[in-house]
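In this supplementary section we document a worked example of the pipeline. Step one takes a protein sequence of length 242 as its only input; no multiple sequence alignment statistics are reported here. Step two produces a three-dimensional model, which step three serialises into C-alpha cells for compact storage. The input and output of this example are shown verbatim.
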Amino acid sequence: MYSYQSRIRYSELDETGHLKIESLLDYFQDCSTFHSEDLGLGVEYLRKRHMVWVMSSWQIVVSRYPRLGERVTVGTAPYDFRGFMGSRNFLMSDEAGERLACANTIWSLIDTESARPVKPTAEMLEGYVIEPRLEMEYAPRKIAVPGESGAGEPIVVRKHHLDMNHHVNNGQYIRIAMDALQEEGRIRQLRAEYRKQVYLGDVLIPYVASSGDGRQTVVLRGEDDAVCCIVELEKDSCGLAV
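The serialised model returned by step three reads:
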C-alpha cells in the first residue's frame, strides 16, 4: 500500500478539537494524488492524454477521530479495474498502527475531449498494482433517498469550490451538504454518490431527508432539478473511540 505520514493540524479540527470528516476526506484525496504523481501517472500524464479520473462514489468509515498534533499514516491501494472503472481503498492509522478510518472509492476514467469513458492505458494497468480489498463493511455505490423535505437555500458555485479540472471538487460537495444540515454530532460513516459535474456559476439546491435511524441524506440538485450529488451521513449512536 502506498502511504505517507502527516500530523493533524489546527486548521483541520472541528469545535471539539478532533479532525473534521471533510479534512479526513482531503487526506485521502491527497494520498491518491501523491500516489499517481509518484508513479508518473498524475495530473500532467493525464492532461497530455486528455484524460481525467472522475469520482463516482465515496464510502468513509471512522473508528476514531484523531486530535490536534497526532501523527498519522495515510495509505491507499487500488484493488480492481473493470473497463473504464477503477476501485481504490484508503486507510488512516495512528502511531500505534491502529485503524482510525478507512474508505472505499469508485472512479471513472473520462476522455476530456469527447466526455466519454475510456479504458486505462497499459502504463496505468502496470503502474497501479492491484492489492487485496481492505476488510470493511462495503456499502452499495447507489444511495437510496428516503424522502426529501423542502428545498434549502441555493448555493452559487464560487471559485473556491473548484479544483484543477475546473469543476466542483469532491470534498466541496461534502462541505455544502454538511452546511445544509447545520447539526452537531460525530459522523460514523459518510457516503457520497456523484452523478453530474458542476461548474463555476452553477447553482446547487440542497434537499434534506432523514431516515429515522441516525442517517441523514442531502440531495444536491441543479436549477434544472437534475441530481448532481447525494451525500448520506450516519451519526455515531454507540460512541466512537476518542
